[in-house]
Amino acid sequence: MQYVASDDVEQAIAAIASDGCVVLENAVSESEAAELAELVLSSPTRSPGVSGYEFVVCLMNHDLRFLKLAMHPTVLELARHQLGGRTEPAPNAFAWPAEHQILLGSVDGLVAHSGSDPGWWHMDSPMGQLNQSRPLPDFPILVNAIWMLTPFREETGATRVLPGSQHFRHLPPATQDALEGQLHCCAPPGSVVVLPNTVWHAAGTNQTQQPRVAVACNYQPWWVGRLTMDVYPIDREVWEKMPPEAQALTRHQLEWNTDFSGELTDTSAPEE
Ligand SMILES: O=C(O)CCC(=O)C(=O)O
Asked: Which of 3, 50, 202, 250 would you label with 115, given CA atoms 20 to 30 Å apart?
């Protein structure tokens, strides 16, 4: 696992090529991280994960301050590098406009409460949904930027990754156990691990008394739609308040079909 300065795009690209992922250190300040961690914890709309673990869905509908993470220039540059395609047309292939090649799929909180179970090893969608009788693509279809807003250490439940697994081109075994060669992404609040969806990863287990709080910003190419039933669109009224660059990355969400939905709870709703 390589740790690089948050503006060092070249080094970060090299680290992803060799290890499958990279940590950008101190990409926002610790005080900004602390403020955003509180905002995650006060956001009402949750979806359950393994025991003791919750997703806090579509944080942007709660507060546009999360744009600070989603629009981070180095993260956007890495997402473009990983997911972008042809920029010059050929006689037999058109080029999609470079500035519209990547989109923001979701911005969700990841909360591992005290005593959380370890996560299942996986590759991010849609790798698990593809035909598993063929090798999976050797290129990513999603880039996950997991922002660490509280201390990430083994005992707080830091995300686990298996460096090099980007070459395996198949899903990990369906296990929550430690895998040989796994590493914990340990870093101070304000750092971000950038993981293309070719790499195996899983949440750790939080053995402390404090919640471990992260925000996952998922980027995808223009040719991918709503990826899972646990991803929810930005509300139009919220979208209208966004700066133009963020509107361009999220406009597609306004058209998403949400007939398929996962299990959601609203912690602000009165108990029945
Ligand atoms: O919360 C974590 O540490 C892992 C999150 C994760 O696996 C994901 O966002 O795909």
From this structure: 3
**Cα dist. 196→41, 52, 78, 214, 217 in Å?**
26, 26, 9, 17, 12
CB of 216 shorter than 6 A to ligand 1: yes
Tell me which residue has tokens 């950008």: 24
Query: Is the CB–ligand 1 distance for residue 9 below 6 Å?
Result: no
Distance between CA atoms of 132 and 170, rounded to whole angstroms?
Answer: 7
Range of the domain at 151: 3-84+98-254
- Lowest pLDDT segment from 61-65, 111-115, 116-120, 253-257: 253-257
Quote the number of domains for the chain.
1
Binding site membership of 203 for ligand 1 (Cβ less than 6 Å): yes
| Token pair belonging to 27 | 């990409």
Of 268, 215, 186, nearest to 38 by C-alpha is 215
Question: Ligand 1, closest atom to CA 218?
Answer: 9
| Reported pTM | 0.96
- Residue at 177 is within a domain: yes
pLDDT confidence of residue 213:
98
Q: Which of 159, 161, 171 to mutate to test the pocket of ligand 1 (most atoms within 8 A of CB)?
A: 159
Atom of ligand 1 nearest to the CA of 202: 7
Question: Which protein residue has the closest C-alpha to ligand 1 atom 1?
Answer: 203
Residue 89 lies in a domain: no
63 assigned to some structural domain? yes
Q: CATH number of the domain at 129, please.
A: 2.60.120.620
| 90 in any annotated domain | no
